[in-house]
Specification:
alpha/beta, TIM Barrel, 5-stranded parallel sheet, globular
Length: 440
């Protein structure tokens, strides 16, 4: 019987703060990083499962320690314990009473859970020789429903409602699969919108993006209103009046401040304001949404929503117009599926958070699955794209003319090159040794 024989976790960090890549109002100096998990088995083909949780530098070692705390729940388990009932195995991982006390399905333990769960899905998809989206979209409605832990959700959606919704789209799955393979999935770019970029760099990046076929753009805001007005105006002038422009405050504001600030930016015609306030403030998001509705500006959030329950409440409270799943903040594929189902029930489009390390690689699979099996539509939906660090992956995401191309390689697209893992291991990798040698 095939068993999981080992779990290794590495602290991997990239010094992106040197060029202020990824900088925003709350995170001015991120070093894009990951707690990187490798699952090994006793299979003769030597297949491994790879998974990660995205971080931005300091504290990655804490997530690594949390992954190691989960290790006894995984090592020694037969693969069939997961592949035969992935929903039950998810509950096994999240149900350890002593670990759960540290943060019931939230916080560092949940970040660690995401890395382990996603590594399990990567392993299963490689065994089946399918990309994750293909594995997921081959499951029956009943199997998809089984993935979800329905505890705490039944007041918003029941398993039978979910199965009925999924049943309606089964007969047309193949047509949508053909469509997505032919045309790709819509995306938007944040590459020109980082807070630390100069005006000239913003203009240049906008023009390059337009030439490459991009049709939607996002700008970071929240540090200085006049600076935001200027930068948003630059982007709007470069992209014209018709293309979508989104703004992202990364939790910078209080509720009243968020309303006032975004209203001041309304002349730039943003489609949404992302993370305007604390990600845990459901009622605050609802108040912001009501205040901005007359301006035609939606509210988006999700990259720091800690679990499906917070998403449930945001949807119930009509607090968001756009749902932004994060493959590593939620507890891996299983919980992402739960949120996709909830968003479909409430009619809110899912526009995943991406960028970072590996997030673009992850979410493309989940959005394609959402299109094929859950909603049957990508209207009003798009995936974030940031052109950072993709060259470190064996099967990086592919963008053509502003659209994600359907992955073809088996797995979750998250396996990193061995040389990248070695060079960027913290603190002993060669990249970090060289940086330390340069500092006094």
């Amino acid at each position: 019987m095939d068993r999981i024989t080992d779990l290794e976790v590495r602290d991997i960090r990239f010094p992106t703060s040197l060029d202020r890549d990824g900088s925003d109002a709350m995170n001015p100096d991120p070093d894009y990083s990951a707690a990187y998990v490798i699952l090994r088995t006793d299979r003769p083909d030597g297949l491994q499962g790879h998974g990660l949780t995205f971080t931005i530098g300091r504290g990655t070692e804490i997530v690594v320690a949390a992954v190691m705390a989960l290790r006894p729940l995984v090592v020694g388990q037969p693969l069939a314990a997961f592949t035969g009932s992935p929903g039950a195995f998810w509950k096994h991982l999240t149900g350890d009473s002593q670990l759960r006390w540290l943060g019931p399905e939230k916080g560092v333990i949940h970040l660690a859970t995401a890395a382990v769960v996603n590594a399990l899905w990567d392993l299963w998809a490689k065994i089946e020789r399918k990309p994750l989206w293909k594995l997921l979209s081959g499951l029956s409605p009943a199997q998809i429903v089984e993935l979800v832990d329905w505890r705490y959700l039944s007041d918003a959606m029941t398993p039978s409602e979910a199965q009925e919704m999924l049943d309606r789209l089964v007969s047309t799955r193949s047509a949508r699969e053909s469509e997505i393979i032919a045309s790709g999935y819509p995306a938007y770019t944040t590459s020109a919108g980082w807070l630390g970029y100069s005006d000239d760099k913003i203009r240049r990046l906008c023009r390059e993006a337009l030439a490459d076929g991009w049709t939607a753009f996002k700008v970071k805001v929240g540090a200085d209103l006049e600076d935001d007005r200027r930068r948003c105006s630059i982007v709007r002038a470069e992209i014209g009046p018709d293309l979508p422009l989104m703004i992202d405050a990364n939790q910078r504001w209080d509720v009243a401040q968020a309303i006032e600030w975004v209203q001041a930016l309304a002349p730039c015609d943003p489609l949404w304001i992302e993370e305007p306030t604390s990600p845990d403030d459901i009622l605050g998001h609802a108040a912001i949404a009501r205040a901005l509705a007359p301006f035609g500006i939606g509210v988006a959030t999700g990259e720091h929503c800690q679990n499906r329950v917070v998403f449930k409440q945001l949807l119930q409270a009509e607090a968001i117009s756009f749902c932004q799943i994060d493959s590593c903040r939620l507890g891996g594929v299983n919980e992402v599926v739960a949120v996709l189902l909830l968003a479909a029930k409430f009619g809110v489009p899912v526009c995943p958070h991406a960028g970072g390390v590996g997030l673009c690689e992850y979410v493309q699979h989940e959005s394609i699955f959402d299109f094929i099996c859950v909603t049957g539509s990508h209207e009003g939906r798009m995936i974030e794209f940031v052109d950072h660090l993709h060259g470190h992956f064996v099967d990086p995401c592919v963008i053509r003319r502003g659209r994600y191309q359907a992955p073809t390689a088996p797995g979750t697209s998250i396996t990193m090159k061995l040389e990248s893992l070695e060079a960027h291991g913290y603190p002993s990798g060669e990249v970090w040794k060289r940086l330390r040698a340069k500092k006094p």
